[in-house]
Amino acid sequence: MKILVAVSKAPDTTSKVSFKDGDTKFNEDGVQWIINPYDEWYSLVRAVELKEADPQTVIHLVTVGDASNDAILRKALALGGDEAIRINADASDSYNTAAQIAEVAKQGNYDLIFTGKETIDYNAMAVGSMIAGLLDLPYVSAVAKFDLQGNDAIAIHEIEGGEETVQITLPAVISSTKGMAKQRIPNMRGIMAARSKPIKVVEPIASDNLTEIVQYELPPAKESVKLIDANNVEELVRILHEDVKVI
Amino acid sequence: MSVLIYIDHSEGNIKKSSLEALSYGAALAKKLNTTAEAILLGTVKEGLDIAGRYGITKVYHAADQAYNNYDAQVLTKALLPTANNAEVIVFAQSALGDAIAPRLAAVLNAGLVSGAVALPETENGFVVKKSVFSGKAFAKVKINSGKKVITLKANSFGVKEREPANAEIINISAASSESKIKTIKIEKIEGEIPLTEAEIVVSGGRGLKGPENWYLITDLAHSLHGAIACSRPVADDGWRPHHEHVGQTGVQIAPNLYIAIGISGAIQHLGGVNRSKTIVVINKDAEAPFFKAADYGIVGDAFEVVPKLIEAVKKLKSEN
Ligand SMILES: Cc1cc2nc3c(=O)[nH]c(=O)nc-3n(C[C@H](O)[C@H](O)[C@H](O)COP(=O)(O)OP(=O)(O)OC[C@H]3O[C@@H](n4cnc5c(N)ncnc54)[C@H](O)[C@@H]3O)c2cc1C
Q: Which of A20, B64, B227, B236 is the most buried (most CB within 10 A)?
């Protein structure tokens, strides 16, 4: 089994979100970068579990970005990836990112390609689906449980108001969400081993940036809260019914 | 070149989020001086002419049961010939829409904006506002390609019925392709309203102490005909199922009313709920950060306040 896990760097969830250059750029000052939680906690850890069950399994990591991404690749290697590939391009547009990863995937002949459900910064939920489209592979999104069964995979994924269990013929692209695996912390042995694992840098293929962010906005500031006495819940109900008209 | 809206359905019913997408697509077509058309792959119980009410002139329908299955690969191929004739293709964000839209965009080499929260601005290029950083900010994204794909965030435009009108239905037979995904079973949570479609959401956090106290949340939700949600540790500890977990790493919602009970309001939680139109917070700690993001608040013990609140809601409902 050969698995490709796409990982992306993302600002730590407690980062202050602010912008610069006339609100056209994300202000990275003081931002701590982490591996996008969906990629790390779910995709990668599940891939490592599959490798633990079958040591023949090979896990490659791929990211699109400049050398500032090497730190998250090292951490992902420490968690259990065998080799990392960094495509030296700007990951600002989902299509371009997917096209780059699809190219690497095509050359590597993977049985499984894992992506996170989305990145917590741009929330596009797009890269996995696009890779699948570019490679004409089956795709299941928001997978919360994943197992192999012979040459197939069994996945449980989230749908509106419930979940669906599907059987997938491999190769396939899977986007992971909570439930797939339990978060792990790299151990000392993993960290030591990661130092000598390769990070291969490849140059991007020609591709288009079909979209660009032209402006950011912060949500309008909330007016301060109106407090209602705990002994007067009727007043809250009245406000919601008569003034706000939501109930 | 028209605006094409994808109609998503489940168990024979058109999803409410798709009615919103129809309304949005029709408004966009008007802005672009073109027609709004829709496509439905699969079978539904309702007559599709009702799409006319939302401003749609034509509905292409491939009534093949094979298209009722969740398989983005098959559905994208079936969609392609019709999508080729459209300038903008609109989807509602949903489990299926999120799987098809980017794929279609990639195959068409069309720029994608997912999670749009407003109609595109067309004065200076084609610019779509979407929510980013898990609800902590918005970005205006310019699509530079001729073809465009948009997925619409639920509850950001609203379902808008116009005058009664019937859409013309055009039966198509989309070529079916081999499916590599087989549905084994579907489990729906009976009687609960899907979180992303709910107009009212009642949510509980660790302040409720344990799963045995969840009747406070479900009773209040039921009295308001709302859906139920929870904070992340509540799902992590197995008190509630994962799909009820809202926040930056859970479901992101924008109901008209969000009532948070015993939730501290951590930044990761707020990210998923701060687009709610009205937020009510019930927390015994007056310093809980959630009060800063709330419209209305009650400082008090949930175990005392919520039963009273349920009574007051029931009283209101019985009087109206
Ligand atoms: C990478 C990352 C991602 C995360 N993603 C999410 C996410 O998507 N969603 C999410 O929710 N969290 C997320 N978290 C966790 C988040 O940081 C908080 O830990 C979590 O939201 C806290 O949940 P809580 O408010 O239920 O519990 P607590 O923080 O323990 O708060 C409980 C609250 O209940 C109140 N309370 C106690 N007793 C009562 C009572 N009797 N009556 C009334 N009030 C009472 C307390 O005053 C307190 O404010 C994430 C964290 C990380 C690091």
A: B227
Q: Does A138 touch chain B (CB under 8 A)?
A: yes
Is B207 close to ligand 1, i.e. is its CB under 6 Å away?
yes
Q: Is the complex ipTM more than 0.90?
A: yes
> How many Cβ atoms from other residues are within 10 Å of residue B288's Cβ?
22
CA distance, residue B170 to nearest chain A CA (Å): 27
CA dihedral sign, ordered B17, B19, B24, B29: positive
All residues of chain A having their beta carbon less than 8 Å from the beta carbon of residue B113 are 211
Residue B236 in contact with ligand 1 by CB distance below 6 A: no
Q: In the 3-class helix/strand/coil scheme, how is B24-83 assigned residue by residue?
A: HHHHHHHHCCCCEEEEEECCCCCCHHHHHHHCCCEEEEECCHHHHCCCHHHHHHHHHHHH
Q: Which residue has the tokens 């299955």?
A: B69
Residue A225 lies inside a defined structural domain of this protein: no
Give tens-digit pLDDT for B248-304. Answer: 888 889 999 999 999 999 999 998 999 899 999 999 999 999 999 999 999 999 999
Work out how many domains chain A is built from and give that number: 1
Are the C-beta atoms of residues A110 and A4 closer than 8 Å to each other?
A: yes
CATH class of B195-319: alpha beta
Pick the CATH number of B2-171 from 3.10.129.10, 3.40.50.620, 3.40.718.10, 3.30.420.40: 3.40.50.620
